[in-house]
Every structure is written in structure tokens, then in C-alpha cells.
């Protein structure tokens, strides 16, 4: 199949759009190396690695990073279990209200984050639940489940039911069918969904603001530093870490889901 070359103006628009999206990120990276510690001056008066050592030596950054990592890992684990079970029920079963259940599962990521945050804070207050690590996890799990669910339900719908029936007809138990037939076909979708859920949880701000109490995840720490800066370039160093930590899972999820339009038995 022969493709026509795009006109120059379309290439220029595409390049301008990419520049508009990514130039601010590049500036964040650049100012992590600046010698100016109080304001952003263009061009930077000099370049230094001093702020990386300063960031490494600050215990408040390590505490916030460790909290963000723990929250993201646990929220992702919860999302993998709940999202996969919901996807299996919706894709492989027929029951009254199935579409309504699907809508309710997806709804949290469609709502503005501030609405979700206020709703969760009100629920925790009514139930007299103190803010803790677990309130942050529950807040993040509400939208992480959606990411896993969307990946899993799409893959479940492409897996032929004939594979499962054939496995059972040949004498396999449900556990053996799950292990040797279902999981191999949906594994990349679950892994991609888990990676995306981890990235979303790690850099989440709005819902965390309403569910963290006095705790500070890394994005909350960055927000507070921007309001009351101590060493402004240190914030840029931490921002670089956040970009890298969230970019790698997204890149991995992209590669995992690329070329998965067909699965075993989908054409049977």
C-alpha cells in the first residue's frame, strides 16, 4: 500500500504541536542544572550538578518518594485484582445491568478529580476514618481500576470462548484453564494496565490533596515547594525524577500493547 507524503504545512503544524507539548518539560530539565537558586533567568547564568547532590541529601524528598512508591504499588495491586475481576464479569457473562456496571466502573476517571476528592473526603469523615496511607491508596485505586479494567475488558472480548470450552472439554480444571489458557492471553494487557495505573498513581495530586491529611507524596511535596520554595532548582531535579518514573511505565505499556490486535483463537 502506497502512502502519499504529508504536505509541508501539516508537518509544520505537527512539529509545532509537539514543541508546544514538550518544550516546557525540556525547560524543567534545563533549570535543574542552573546555578541560579532563587528565580528562573533566561538563559541560565551557568550549569551545575550541585542541586542533584542537594536533592539526594534532603530526607523530606526521600520520605515523599518512598510514600509515593508504596502508594502506587499497593494501588496498582488493588486495581489489578478488582479491574480484572470486573472485566471478566462484564466481558464473559450476560446479566441484567451489565452496561450500567461497566459505566459505573469507568465513571471515576471521567469525573473531575476534585469531585472524586471531595466525595472521598466526605465519605471518610462520615465513617470517622482518619487520614492515613490507606486512605490515599483507596483514593488512587478508584481511577487505577479504570485503567486496568479498560485494558482487560478489551482483551477478554478478543479471546475466543472456544479456547476455554476446548480446554474444559479436554479435562482441564478451571484453575488449569485460567493458568494455561486465559492468563497467557491477557497477561500483556494486565501488565500494560498495571504500568499505566502505577504511572497515574505516582504523579496524582488532586485526589491525594483530599485524602492524604498531613502526609506528603512526592507531587504534593513539589506543590508545597513551589508555593514556599527553599531551593528552587531542587524542585526541578525532583520533577525530572517524576517524569522519568512515569514515562518508563507508559513506554513499556505502549510496547506491550503494540501488535496485539489478534490473540490466540480470535479467528476461530
Automatic annotation (TrEMBL):
Q: Where in the cell is it found?
A: Cell membrane
Keyword line? Cell membrane, Membrane, Transmembrane, Transmembrane helix, Transport
| Membrane-spanning segments | 12-33, 64-88, 100-119, 131-149, 181-199, 205-223, 235-256
Pfam families reported in the protein's UniProt record: BPD_transp_1
**SUPFAM superfamilies (UniProt xref):** MetI-like
GO CC: one term? plasma membrane
**The protein, known as:** ABC transporter permease
The organism is Rubellimicrobium rubrum
Amino acid at each position: 500500500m502506497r502512502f502519499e507524503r504529508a504536505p509541508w504545512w501539516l508537518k509544520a503544524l505537527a512539529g509545532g504541536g509537539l514543541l508546544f507539548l514538550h518544550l516546557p518539560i525540556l525547560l524543567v530539565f534545563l533549570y535543574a542544572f542552573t546555578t541560579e537558586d532563587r528565580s528562573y533567568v533566561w538563559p541560565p547564568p551557568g550549569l551545575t550538578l550541585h542541586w542533584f547532590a542537594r536533592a539526594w541529601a534532603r530526607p523530606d524528598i526521600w520520605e515523599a518518594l518512598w510514600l509515593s512508591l508504596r502508594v502506587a504499588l499497593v494501588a496498582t495491586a488493588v486495581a489489578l485484582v478488582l479491574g480484572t475481576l470486573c472485566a471478566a464479569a462484564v466481558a464473559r457473562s450476560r446479566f441484567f445491568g451489565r452496561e450500567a456496571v461497566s459505566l459505573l466502573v469507568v465513571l471515576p476517571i471521567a469525573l473531575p478529580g476534585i469531585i472524586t476528592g471531595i466525595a472521598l473526603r466526605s465519605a471518610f469523615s462520615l465513617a470517622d476514618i482518619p487520614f492515613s496511607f490507606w486512605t490515599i491508596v483507596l483514593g488512587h485505586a478508584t481511577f487505577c481500576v479504570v485503567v486496568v479494567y479498560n485494558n482487560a475488558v478489551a482483551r477478554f472480548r478478543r479471546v475466543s470462548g472456544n479456547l476455554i470450552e476446548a480446554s474444559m472439554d479436554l479435562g482441564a480444571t478451571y484453575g488449569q484453564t485460567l493458568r494455561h489458557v486465559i492468563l497467557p492471553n491477557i497477561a500483556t494487557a494486565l501488565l500494560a494496565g498495571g504500568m499505566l495505573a502505577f504511572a497515574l498513581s505516582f504523579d496524582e495530586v488532586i485526589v491525594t490533596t483530599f485524602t492524604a491529611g498531613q502526609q506528603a507524596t512526592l507531587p504534593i511535596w513539589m506543590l508545597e515547594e513551589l508555593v514556599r520554595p527553599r531551593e528552587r532548582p531542587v524542585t526541578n531535579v525532583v520533577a525530572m525524577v517524576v517524569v522519568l518514573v512515569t514515562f518508563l511505565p507508559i513506554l513499556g505499556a505502549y510496547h506491550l500493547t503494540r501488535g496485539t490486535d489478534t490473540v490466540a483463537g480470535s479467528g476461530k
